[in-house]
Amino acid sequence: MTSVTSLTAQVQQRLANALTATRPEADADPLLRRSDRADFQANGILALAKKAKSNPRDLATEVVGNIVTGDVIKDVEVSGPGFLNITVADRAITENLAARHADSDRLGVPLKDDAGITVVDYAQPNVAKEMHVGHLRSAVIGDALRGMLDFTGEQTIGRHHIGDWGTQFGMLIQYLFEHPGELAPPEDVDGEQAMSNLNRVYKASRAFFDADDEFKERARKRVVALQSGDKETLQLWQQFVDESKVYFYSVFEKLDMEVRDEEIVGESAYNEGMPETARLLEEMGVAVRSEGALVVFFDDIRGKDDQPVPLIVQKADGGFGYAASDLTAIRNRVVDLHATTLLYVVDVRQSLHFKMVFETARRAGWLGDDVTAHNMGYGTVLGADGKPFKTREGETVRLEDLLDEAVQRAAEVVREKAQDLTEDEIQERAAQVGIGAVKYADLSTSPNRDYKFDLDQMVSLNGDTSVYLQYAYARIQSILRKAGETKPAAHPELGLHAAERALGLHLDAFGDTVFEAAAEYAPHKLAAYLYQLASLYTSFYDKCPVLKADTSEQVENRLFLCDLTARTLHRGMALLGIRTPERL
Length: 584
Ligand code: ARG
Known about the structure:
Blueprint: H1 7-22, E1 32-34, E2 40-42, H2 44-52, H3 56-66, E3 73-79, E4 83-88, H4 90-102, E5 117-121, H5 133-152, E6 155-159, H6 168-178, H7 191-211, H8 213-227, H9 231-254, H10 274-284, E7 288-290, E8 293-296, E9 311-314, H11 322-336, E10 341-344, H12 351-363, E11 372-375, E12 381-382, H13 399-417, H14 423-443, E13 451-452, H15 455-458, H16 466-482, H17 498-508, H18 510-519, H19 523-543, H20 552-575
Helix pairs in contact: 1-3, 4-17, 4-20, 5-18, 6-7, 6-8, 6-9, 7-8, 7-9, 11-12, 13-14, 16-19, 16-20, 17-19, 17-20, 18-19, 19-20
Bound molecules: arginine.
Residues 121, 124, 126, 161, 163, 326, 344, 346 line the site of arginine.
């Protein structure tokens, strides 16, 4: 694997060198940007002139004299009050791209050298409950962030902090205890049956719980038995977890997302550590007793009437809750998994919880200065009416139903366009297009914003959609097939058309974009990059004939641009968790 330095980075370096040569003490940033007028524009000289009290245009001219040109940089012009317009050489563009093309796996993108370990807490449904649209975003965003981070060389460890512990299990287990055999062994059910079994048991036990005080009492005792590790109780609890996992796996499969069993580490996994967490917090004085409960207070977190809002580590009845498991999980992730970053992809409505949990862990010394903790809080999925997404009956939308509908809609689109596809192929593509559409709609919006779930828009062939990108990819594959014996090959000696340069410079920026998007946890920046890539490709294709280009060298060189565009689309989409079918 050879890593390639992007032209942006190379130009940046040359400019930095020239600035240092001109004003050694200043440590000025060239402030390089892509530009419409030339390839790049550098705006940093204005600030430097101000600092050095020189005339900016004169200073700019002086800097230009110190810029090494002739190979990468073809031309530098001073413009306006002291901007620099920079044009890179066609040859440099093609050579850089050729080096990327030769590394079909990583496209020349280097691995970062300060890689750490990021534990990503995402896709955390709750046992014995149906997954709904709220679980969609965490899964989709978390998976994309992992894809991007891994690509930069960061090591990610997934944690699916499923809700598999708590008082509600007393009721469920007691019911199962009194009505044995209502849950089938996991190997005998598929996802849908598993969920309908769980629903049935849930409803039945709930009915007993509400109507029968004696059952209620037995359910309460069952909670105590569960928490104290009673064997029989744990066995029945395990049945719920196993049955739920069958269901989760079926939904994640529909989502075309890999979930590994060893990364499903739910709240229950921290059960044993919770008393110690509480004891340590109390001993250190981080947590205090208040009305029987063990709580942590914060100066800046107050509720109504300016009353402090505490984080409850242990309830007055001795029970541990959500905060205790998260605090215990932090200890595990830092000490045992050696995490340098803890990333939580959890609904923004839980941001106060995480603020309190992180602060508590900092005070306790479990989160040191060398560990970053971040809640990537995402916004709400809205319906077409701009209100939180609900069914027509006002119920929360089941995740499976929503995915099924997306695939169905995609099938219509694929069928309409399909020329040489069999029915099986149409169904397979429909899944890739439909699920891709759902993921892309989510990922192309900044995570912290709400977005409207609008299937018509999501599967539209025009505009910023995954289908548009998938078609761009498939069209390129078809061109490459049509080229037959003529293979893509770079010809650095050829001059480039403006549309080729624009496409080429954008292709060259893939790695820089992934690094930026990963560092900022901003999948929408990668999505925007890919959309722009497809748009630049379209205008290249409009303006520059490929198979009918003037010379055979030109045909090969343009095929090479096509092929690298396809590889970059494929790689970028894969990082987001989206497929790119070869034919559509
Ligand atoms: N299971 C929770 C829910 O459905 C999300 C868990 C988030 N992760 C965490 N470490 N608290 O709301």
